[in-house]
Amino acid sequence: MTEPRRARHANPAIRRLWPADIADFRAHLRRLDQASRNMRFGGTVTDAFLLDYADTLARPDAVVFGAFADGRIVAVAELRMLFDADGASAEAAFSVEEPYQDKGIGHALLSRLIAAAQNRGIRSVYMICLSGNARMRHLALKHDAEIEFEEGEVRGTVRRAWPDMASLTEEVLGETFGFTRALLRL
Questions:
Q1: pTM of the shown model
Q2: What sign does the CA torsion over 42, 39, 16, 170 have?
Q3: Closest by Cα among 114, 100, 175 to 143
Q4: How far apart are CA 51 and CA 47, in angstroms?
Q5: Which residues contact 40 (CB under 8 A, 6 or more apart)?
Q6: Tens digits of per-residue pLDDT, 47-97?
Q7: Could you give the domains of the chain?
Q8: C-alpha distances in angstroms, 30 versus 35, 50, 55, 79, 152?
Q9: What is the pLDDT of residues 125-155, one digit of tens each?
């Protein structure tokens, strides 16, 4: 087995993923090493589970961003709407391939995810991870999350106000830049 290639790009292109990206999303999930899979899904998952999970990209209650390097998805941030009493919350989840971890990609993805949530009237973004997931806890704290510990899990909550010019600008410019980079790559 060959050694995983070390990431050359500390600043990959980030753009929203669409149903046409499902095959690339599947490939990304399958490239996750076992430790990354465990941290993302809270335990061991099979390749078959990952292939089925990738289909959730097309659900209307999801906003998913991908970070691209060398023409492929290397990290993903998912925002899944929660249909609770106030209707203004969502859960965030992340997967980053091992060579791209600890490069600031998760931070960039979470910034985009929070702006997207804010622009959709989502007031609370929850990030739930295993208590041993120090990277996720650190990421949550960088975004001023309230942290709670519960039976082997950590729950971070990022609260935001209603959309403002900064969040709207971040999403529009981010999408424009990501789309332009994708077109230039073609």
A1: 0.79
A2: positive
A3: 114
A4: 6
A5: 32, 93, 94, 95
A6: 999 999 999 998 988 999 999 998 899 999 999 988 766 668 899 999 999
A7: 13-180 (3.40.630.30)
A8: 12, 7, 14, 20, 26
A9: 888 878 888 888 888 878 777 888 888 777 7
